[in-house]
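Hello K.,

You asked for the raw outputs rather than the summary table, so here they are, unedited. I folded two proteins back to back in the same session to keep the settings identical. This is the first:
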Amino acid sequence: MSYRDFDLRTVKQQLGVHIRERQGVFAAVPAVAIRPAFAELLAETVPLARGINTEKARSELIIAPMLVELRKQLQHRISLFSGIEFNVDKQHGLNGFCDFIISASPQQLMLNAPVIVIVEAKNENIISGLGQCIAEMVAAHCFNSTEQTPIKTLYGVVTTGTAWKFLTLEHTTVVIDLDEYMIDQPGKVLGILHHMLAALVAPNVASC
């Protein structure tokens, strides 16, 4: 068993998480300003990804540029990993590959704790990715604890590139925001990602 074998039912049954659904969890988070150069980039890549319409295209042309822009805005105080193996507890199925992992450590050559955000890319079906994302969040919690860098709140994202859904994990409770945020408002999506990282990056890091 691996991350991709989990759905919402199995994460509840096998990992003991409690799932709550709420609306407007991140509604009050402000958008950040978008650089003109990045807006121009998205104007080119988003229609292309929509035209190709595969998970790989959306991951490479929308999701990865968004996360690279986030890292740039945070002055490289975070590290970003794509498609890496994240084996934490094979006995419980917490093993396999993660699409994207964001760590609050600036070191890029290896994954260091604390892991704070797990981003799972899905092609046109966000709901199908929720269980896998939650399993990866539980693994991140275990990883942080083992590395003696526990954090109160872990975050998860399931996205098609054009639609973004956000989750939180505290202790054993997962909250799924019922709202989805669209790539047509990239400042809002980046604002929420900034909010997720704000408590763990240096206070002198600019937010835009």
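The second followed immediately with the same parameters:
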Amino acid sequence: MPEAGNARSLVMRSRIIEGAVEVVADDGVAASTAVIAKRVGVAQGSVFHHFETKAGLLDAVFAVLKKELRAAVIADLDDALPLDDKLWLIWRRWTDWGTRNPARRRALLLIGVSEYVSSQTRQESELESVVGVELFQEASRTGVLRQQPIRFVGALVEAVANSTMDMMALEPARADEYRLAGYRAMRNMLG
């Protein structure tokens, strides 16, 4: 029967993480664990049973959302495609995920700039994103950013992507136009 207990524990952890995504998206990272527990319909002690601290919970939320985004963006990426085709596919998938999941994107952004993400989780996230990072690094090898650290290049790409998704959400009728314009701006920036 221990397996049933573990399965229930994993389900509860997932419920708490999903509740935290919603609360952070609505109220920011300053939201209390009591609010998260109430959203999930559990006692606040349950949150701390599964996550020792609020920082541990938000760190887990960040890791889950990064993995989800990475899976949506990099899945089944054909190595035989030319670089520009790979970048366009990644861009399209990324902006699709962000516009279809505004609460998840907002929670990821807010937690990502907070002090709640551990250095270990950030490092693991970077390592797991190596395929996408390498493609953007390859694209920047001949441009003005060629001598810049990949973290800086990545931050610029992410800023353009987020601005693009913001405009796509603001004006859905022009979403395809903004997606293409954002991609072209990103490509021109990279070189």
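The longest helix spans residues 2-27.

Happy to rerun anything if the numbers look odd on your end.

Regards,
P.
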